[in-house]
């Protein structure tokens, strides 16, 4: 574990952005190192497993709220809006975490060999859960990290490591939940098709009828199940995507509030300003100035509409 923590801290010191997030050239692998908690972090997570190596973080996903600490693995099982706040970190012992995006194709292939799970009722769908990090799973994370020093080996070795990682997760205490979500007939998988449209086309007006059709649901059922899984309506979900991306454009690319608003699909700057203030608790310009003032680490921009924090 100590070797893994040292590797994360060393890599993040060179590549982390203002929030402590470091992307990597290994597909789906990222890490976080935070010495001074930055406050609330709004993001949209893709399905992922996050290994908390040091410190602690509070996460609110849908209607679920939990604090995750060192030695725990966190699984977010769907494309979800997440409110995170690091609650334990210091210069001597920063918050350290590794995240690996889950791949539905691998989950489905392995589940077919391991035996399927009984479909969950929509009311039973869980999108956030934790387990104690097992040695086998951490070993997979460490081997993915080792590919950073051997980029030529990534296309050859990563597929096997990812398959092994998914196997151990499916074999764990929440394997049945993962198999249920991976089942193409489950409500979660069907909703994922609609969410994929929103993530790709969040700048445009997307008819809800198209989303319901993608999920193979009636309008009434789609609204009900979408709200149950994400805690948001489809319109609110799209708005969250736009606002998170607009904030990134202002902070990392220096766009003005009006330019960022139009870039993410808003037609009214005043409407953008109101909705931005509700989510981030400050008008766009003031929030950008305040956040830049707190930034003391290297910036490396990331699109919130396509990626996630850990």
Strand content: 15-25%
Strand order of the largest sheet: 1-2-9-4-7-10
The first-level CATH class of the largest domain is given as Mainly Beta
Low-pLDDT residue intervals, each spanning 5 or more residues = 296-309
Give the assembly state of these chains: single chain
Describe the largest sheet: 6 strands, antiparallel
Shape: globular
How many domains? 3
Number of helices: 12
> What would the average pLDDT be, to the nearest integer?
88
Cα-atom radius of gyration: 19 Å
CATH fold node name of the largest domain: Jelly Rolls
The fourth-level CATH homologous superfamily of the largest domain is Regulatory protein AraC
Structural class: alpha+beta
Index terms:
Jelly Rolls, alpha+beta, 10 strands, 4-stranded antiparallel beta sheet, 310 residues, 3 domains, 6-stranded antiparallel beta sheet
Task: Walk me through the structure.
The chain is of the alpha+beta class. It folds into three domains: 2-181, Jelly Rolls (Sandwich), CATH 2.60.120; 184-229; 236-294, Arc Repressor Mutant, subunit A, CATH 1.10.10. The protein is built from twelve helices and ten strands. The strands form two sheets. A six-stranded antiparallel β-sheet has the order 1-2-9-4-7-10, with helices on one face. Strands 3-8-5-6 form a four-stranded antiparallel β-sheet. Helix 9 (234-253) crosses helix 10 (257-263). The protein is globular, with a radius of gyration of 19 Å.
């Amino acid at each position: 574990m100590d070797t893994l923590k040292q590797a994360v801290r060393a890599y993040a010191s060179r590549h982390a952005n203002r929030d402590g997030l470091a992307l990597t050239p290994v597909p789906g692998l990222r890490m976080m190192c935070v010495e001074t908690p930055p406050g609330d972090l709004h993001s949209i997570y893709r399905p992922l497993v996050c290994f908390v190596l040091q410190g602690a973080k509070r996460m609110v996903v849908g209607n679920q709220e939990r604090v995750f600490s060192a030695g725990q693995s966190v699984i977010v099982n769907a494309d979800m809006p997440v409110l995170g706040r690091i609650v334990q970190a210091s210069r001597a012992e920063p918050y350290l975490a590794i995240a690996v995006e889950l791949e539905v194709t691998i989950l489905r292939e392995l589940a077919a060999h391991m035996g399927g799970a009984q479909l969950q009722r929509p009311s039973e769908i869980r999108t956030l859960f934790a387990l104690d990090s097992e040695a086998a799973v951490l070993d997979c994370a460490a081997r993915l990290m080792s590919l950073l020093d051997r980029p030529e080996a990534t296309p050859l070795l990563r597929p096997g490591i990812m398959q092994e990682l998914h196997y151990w997760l499916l074999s764990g205490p929440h394997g049945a939940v993962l198999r249920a979500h991976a089942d193409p007939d489950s409500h979660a998988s069907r909703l994922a098709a609609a969410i994929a449209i929103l993530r790709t086309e969040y700048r445009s007006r997307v008819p809800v009828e198209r989303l319901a059709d993608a999920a193979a649901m009636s309008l009434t059922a789609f609204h009900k199940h979408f709200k149950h899984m994400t805690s948001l309506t489809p319109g609110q979900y799209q708005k969250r995507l736009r606002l998170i991306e607009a904030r990134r454009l202002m902070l990392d690319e220096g766009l003005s509030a009006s330019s960022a608003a139009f870039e993410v699909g808003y037609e009214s700057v005043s409407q953008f300003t109101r909705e931005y203030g509700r989510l981030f608790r400050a008008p766009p310009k003031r929030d950008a100035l305040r956040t830049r003032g707190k930034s003391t680490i290297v910036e490396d921009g990331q699109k919130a509409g396509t990626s996630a924090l850990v």
